[in-house]
Design goal:
Helices cover about 35% and strands about 20% of the residues. The chain has two domains: about 15-145, no CATH class; about 150-240, no CATH class. The relative contact order is 0.11. It contains eight helices and twelve strands. The protein has about 270 residues and is of the alpha+beta class. Helix 5 runs antiparallel to helix 6 (about 205-215) and helix 5 packs across helix 7. The protein is elongated and about 80 Å long. It has helices at about 15-25, 85-95, 150-160, 165-175, 195-205, 205-215, 225-240, 250-265; strands spanning about 35-40, 45-50, 60, 65-70, 75-80, 100, 110-115, 120, 125-130, 135-140, 145-150, 240-245.
């Protein structure tokens, strides 16, 4: 699970447990820093546990990131880091009371989702949990989810008035005639102009403007994806999406639904 150079860390659900774990580990012989001790295999500094002699905090560090800090008042501060290894270590130490789903994605959604006490939070930088309550409670550090919601009646009106439907008919006619005005460059769709420029080209309603617009899309992409991107440009320009803020979600299904909307309309 952790490779040959690291073993599963122990479960530590409170400051007292973390402190006793640190006390039970002997310092590495010959090192001047006796406060930092290996939490995995001895001699392996990838995962360590340290007691701060100034304030008594007990800190778990993965490589150079202090991922968990246990405070004397009982609170626990978590530092998110997007890696599969960090998620596994978090589960070993704090699960199932807290479950991290941290990843680095290439589209505009929340990367750091953390489940605490059955609630799913957006935790991008740090957060504080209170393990003295049942179920555990997230006390600080989360940011609200900003979830776009499409106003379908407004969107339908925008598509009718924008020239989008006329463009679709024009492009489909061109393709049936054996003419493909799209760009053969596989990266063309990443050069799509801003929504106001797309809206202007759509509204022109002439072959020259539509041909120029078609050049922003690759022949290697499906027409469905082309039309979807155009619709989203129209929605953005006409303000068809309203953003709702939510502090947390009660189920993973709700999270997935919100993430789909963020990816589609974000």
């Amino acid at each position: 699970m952790f490779g040959t150079n690291m073993i599963a860390p122990p479960k530590m659900l409170s400051y007292e447990t973390a402190l006793s774990t640190w006390e039970s580990i002997k310092p590495i012989r010959g090192r001047s820093d006796t406060d930092t001790r290996p939490l995995a295999r001895r001699g392996n500094d990838n995962l360590t546990i340290r007691r701060n002699s100034n304030n008594g905090d007990v800190i778990v560090t993965l490589y150079s990131t202090e991922i968990i800090t246990y405070h004397e008042d009982g609170l626990i501060t978590i530092e998110p880091y997007a890696s599969a290894l960090t998620n596994r270590i978090m589960w070993c130490i704090l699960g199932p009371y807290m479950n991290t789903l941290w990843s680095a994605r290439d589209y505009r959604t929340c990367d750091f989702i953390t489940e605490v006490g059955g609630r799913y939070y957006n935790t991008p930088s740090y957060f504080v949990v209170d393990p003295r309550k049942t179920p555990w409670v997230l006390g600080a550090g989360s940011k609200p989810f900003r979830v776009p919601r499409l106003d379908r009646s407004k969107a339908a009106k925008a598509l009718r008035e924008s020239g989008y439907r006329d463009f679709v008919v024009w492009l489909e006619t061109q393709l049936k005639l054996g003419v493909d005005p799209r760009n053969p460059d596989s990266w063309a769709h990443y050069q799509l102009p801003l929504p106001f420029a797309v809206a202007r080209l759509l509204r022109n309603g002439d072959n020259e403007g539509w041909a120029k617009l078609a050049q922003y899309f690759s022949t290697r992409s499906s027409r469905d994806s082309l039309y979807q991107r155009l619709r989203h440009c129209v929605y953005d320009y006409e303000g068809c999406c309203e953003v709702e803020e939510t502090a947390y979600f009660e189920s993973w299904r709700e999270v997935q639904s919100a993430m789909r909307r963020m990816k589609t309309y974000g």
